[in-house]
Amino acid sequence: MILKNLKTYFKFLSKNKFYTFVSIFGFSVSLMFVILLSLYTRQELSVDNFHKKKDRIFLMSHNYEANFGNTVAPFVKDKCPEVEAFCRMHSRSVFVGDKGTEKLISEAIFADSTFFNIFSFRLIEGNPSQVLVTQRSVVVTQDYAHKLFDKENPMGKTLNIDNREHTITGIMENIPLNSQFPQCDFVASYSSITNYWSDEILTTSNNFGFTTYFLEKEGADLQSKIPLLLQLFKEEFWFYKNGFTDKLEFIPLEDVYFTVKSSWGLAIKTNSKDLIKVYGAIAILILIIATLNYINMTVAQAGFRGKEAAIKKLLGGSRGGIMVQLLKESLLMTVVTFCLGLVLALISEPFFNEVLTTKLEMVKQLTVSTIFAGILFILFISLVSGLMPALIISKFNPLEIVKGTFTRKIKSSYSKGLIIFQYIVAIALLICSFFIKQQSDFLGNYDLGYQHDNVFSMYVDLDTVQTAGFRSKLLSIPGVDKVSFSCGNPMDRGNNYSFEKDGEQYSTQEILADDDFFDVYGICFTPSDVPFTEKSLLVNNNLFNSPLANKGDMTIELGHNSERLPITGILSDFHIGSLHEDRRYLRIRKKTNGMRPWGVSVRIDGAADIFVVSDKIQKEYIAYTGGEHARYPQFADSIIQDWYKKEQNLSKILSAFTLLTILISVMGVFAMSLYMIKQKEKEIGVRKVSGATGGQVLWMLNKESLIRVLIAFVIACPIAYYMIGEWLNDFSYRISLNEWTFAVAGSIIAILTLISVSYMTWRAAQANPVDSLKNE
């Protein structure tokens, strides 16, 4: 009986090839998106959930930035009995290999010996409490060990890391993808950071460039110690004494991934929780649309399958039995489309990873739990998508067959409602896609007020004597125009000073620059004839017009013991940092000869090959420092484009989803038109016999589709307006919403609808009425 029912179903599918194609293609492509987005959302929302002590681990932060000096962590542990342990961390790219051989660029994390006791990164070999105790000890990842030593046991072997010997004391599993910690090749003992700074780096807090995690004792409340610690920090540490910040936070481990803005010490991965929720919502919406489209298509077929159901009832079949058969067919269709969707997802995974700058690795996520969830998903979707068509088809009355009054017409209220819903979603998404693309382009093309093209920057570790020599070396490279050493630049915003005045909180940025800084970035100040000296204080218009400045005597208060300093110039109007933030208060002062610069900015001649020149700059630094590599070498343009990757990724994903939604909707409407026209063949014939022209018949058939689009447009516009308005509220610099974008989106859907149905309606309007009436 089952085989007979399957044979009947396959016969029906083969006779209705377009219906079969639309159902399978639309559902499988939709499920491809659902699978990819669901796995991505699951991976992102489960970041660091695998740590056994996650509820007691906190990241120390200020102003959502997680950088502190090395003596801060021991100080906190000494003052707070709530602290069980701490772990300071630092990450950087290093070079591994013996002298005279080609060196391998590797990613390293330097961490305190408590690393494996606080975090649940599994050791394959080695004692968690001992592997990082000794200086220059290293725990390599499983993949890195295999890469360097193949099948040999690496325990006890040495690695030459930046020309210093380190001993392998342990092997660990690779850091999971769902972790905030950067993917690394090995974890080295924290004391090894003295290889890159002097020994004083461990005993002073002059360098606020390291990241610290704390493990709270069970039952303790570390958060309650923040007021006390803030008071002590203002007495103890220069970062707080000098007003760089007056904030202190202990961010729970599970919130770090979605909270921290930057961490100089550790390359913490971050993401937007709201954006993840958007991707999750997109996956759900795709699933709803695909399911509704399948229901719509099946309901449209109800009249054609109703005769089969009625005949089975005449032969003794029950309505329940017919419903079970139809639900089995739905299950079969869901299994087939799910398998096809899974295959398409595997094929599309590399593209998906590239668009979202992630690493999904679907095969590794096929665990017992995900397979079980997949089975439940298939059963649920087959039930939801099959129940309504089963109820409609199984209710046909067998007496209509006996009386000869059987008709293929059914009430179309279900189909009309579902089609209008799809149109609403398609129009709203198209409007949102247009505006998100406009906002993304607006951010990327916005004039920031300084020259960032052909500017190459990198962080360096040079003293004042080395700086002068390295400047000469760089200027000797063909294609290098200008060289500037500074503490900060327009992209990284320099240092931050936060302080309170008259009950108000103020935050200012400070860049310490040399004379060539202004030429490299094309920044001006007035009056331009005043020399830039160590006594100079240049402020932007934002700061000059703030309550901190006194325009009468041209002085300004900057939070240093309420001292007022003379303003010597007003900077040209330019924006520091990304456009996600409001224009900040900024001051620029002269970098004195005794100050070590953070980095170097180089303006490259536009006629030169900027990539060749930048490569020479990096090689010159390696040669000049005896093998040291500069950190974060980047073009200014690349840094700026990276700021808006999330918006660009969202635009790409939403555009693909919108295209899919429109495609499914149009194909569904086209298929529906086939059956609608078949139902109206007699009416068309009667109208043509009565004198109606082909154009009148064409308008009659197309009018209904256009009315549905119009209804959907009226409903979709306010929905899209609200959604895109809420999204744009997160931007300090934003586009304005214009009416033509709404009109274009509605027009596109209307035109596509007309194109999809007009061919069939034109054929119906041109058909000979005798053919449709001769059998009536």
TrEMBL record:
GO terms for molecular function: transmembrane transporter activity. It comes from the Bacteria. The keyword Transmembrane applies. The chain crosses the membrane at residues 21-40, 278-295, 331-351, 371-393, 414-436, 653-677, 706-724, 740-762. One of its GO terms (cellular component) is plasma membrane. Keywords: Cell membrane, Membrane, Transmembrane, Transmembrane helix. It is a multi-pass membrane protein. Residues 20-192 form the MacB-like periplasmic core domain. It is found in: Cell membrane. PANTHER family: ABC-TYPE MACROLIDE FAMILY EXPORT SYSTEM PERMEASE COMPONENT 2 (PTHR30572:SF18), MEMBRANE COMPONENT OF TRANSPORTER-RELATED (PTHR30572). This is ABC3 transporter permease protein domain-containing protein. The lineage of its organism: Bacteria, Pseudomonadati, Bacteroidota, Bacteroidia, Bacteroidales.
